[in-house]
Specification:
Elements lengths: L1 H11 L3 H19 L6 E2 L1 H10 L3 H18 L4 H6 L3 H24 L15 H19 L3 H15 L20 H31 L8 H18 L4 E2 L2 H9 L6 H20 L8 H18 L1 H4 L4 H15 L2 H27 L1
Antiparallel strand pairs: 1-2
Length: 363
């Protein structure tokens, strides 16, 4: 969560105070409303696309507002049936592409780290190799020991920000985002991949894992409630310049594995974020000044976890081809809209290829 907040702040010029404040309100509100530990996370497809192309703040806010309106619009339909029509392999292609972009952006940030700024040693090694090694180690330890090392790393980064960071030092330099009028092509690039992810992962997937982990607790996690939460929440957040957010099955799983079994964990997280927002407001800081080594490490580690989400598709007959194709498009273009389009074409091709192959066998 924190590295994506930092990139939204630095790349798209969001107020660090408003991002933290809106995140706090969303965490507290989600816990009180849903009555279970409910994740609140940045809209990853939008945040990562904004990071890769340098989308402006207004473009990100308009995209979040459009997604919110779309979620509210979906409440009049049978969302379960609609979500079932989205192939799981298509979602996995988007997740793999997001993972690839996260890793490549993390490596790019690693190149720019000046360790002397943080009071460490001289530059006598490859930043990329060191950060990548640390990221892989964190992922490995998290998988083996079932301990939320990424959350610990993120918290250490925030503590660094609170007590040792230089307010005049910014982790990322924004050279792409502008304050000009929103570009329609950029908004489409931000919104369309996010719609597929939100419907399948943030709504259907979240309801599924909540029932699996917290089924014995009386809660309000229903399809329409999730759509209303993401819908109205993003519209309001877009109006004030707050966090473009969603819920997510992966986030709920992280809460559960971290030991959260009551919605009070949301309240604790919310209070912590409120404290951070107050500190930023008091210091008069605009950008969310998150340490670059932590940003790069967490982006790469999160990207690796995203790659792992596609394992079920990788094990299918044509899944490897679909995922490799999505990966290549992501590596060479960093364009999530193009990834979505190519992946849809691949789904159509293999659908008719399989159907024709089946008919030939029957004949």
């Amino acid at each position: 969560m924190f590295p994506l907040l930092a990139t939204l702040s630095s790349v798209s010029n969001f107020s660090g105070t408003l991002l933290l404040l809106s995140s706090a309100v969303l965490y507290i509100g989600s816990g009180l409303f849903f009555k279970v530990p409910m994740s609140v996370q940045p809209l990853k497809a939008i945040a990562i696309a904004a990071l890769s192309i340098g989308a402006s703040q207004i473009e990100v806010r308009v995209s979040g507002c459009i997604l919110g309106c779309f979620c509210i619009f979906l409440t009049v339909f049978k969302t379960n049936e609609l979500a079932k029509k989205i192939p799981q392999s298509l979602i996995h292609c988007i997740q793999v592409a997001l993972g690839v972009i996260l890793i490549t952006q993390g490596l790019q940030f690693a190149k720019t780290i000046t360790w002397l700024h943080y009071g460490f040693f001289t530059q006598e090694f490859s930043n990329e190799l060191l950060i990548f090694f640390i990221s892989v180690t964190l992922v490995f330890l998290t998988q083996i020991l079932k301990f939320p090392f990424l959350g610990l790393c993120a918290s250490l980064g925030m503590l660094w920000t609170m007590f040792w960071s230089d307010p005049t030092f910014h982790t990322l330099n924004n050279t792409k985002a502008t304050n000009s009028l929103p570009r329609i092509d950029v908004i489409l690039l931000l919104v369309l991949p996010q719609i597929a992810l939100t419907l399948a992962n943030s709504v259907i997937g979240t309801k599924d894992v909540v029932n699996r982990y917290y089924g014995k607790i009386k809660h309000r996690v229903e399809i329409k409630n999730l759509l209303y939460s993401i819908g109205f929440g993003n519209i309001i957040s877009a109006l004030i310049g707050g966090l473009p957010f969603c819920h997510g099955s992966g986030g709920v799983t992280a809460h559960y594995r971290g030991g959260a079994n009551h919605f009070i964990s949301n309240l604790i997280m919310g209070v912590f974020l409120l404290l951070l927002a107050f500190i930023y407001f008091k210091n008069g800081q605009w950008l969310l000044n998150y340490p670059l080594p932590f940003t790069a490490t967490l982006l790469i580690a999160t990207g690796i976890f995203h790659l792992n989400l596609a394992r079920p598709t990788w094990e299918t007959k044509h899944g490897k081809i679909k995922l490799i194709l999505a990966t290549c498009v992501a590596v060479f273009t960093k364009n999530m809209l193009l990834v979505l389009g190519i992946s849809i074409l691949a789904e159509i091709f293999f659908y008719f290829f399989t159907k024709r192959h089946t008919n030939v066998k029957q004949d």
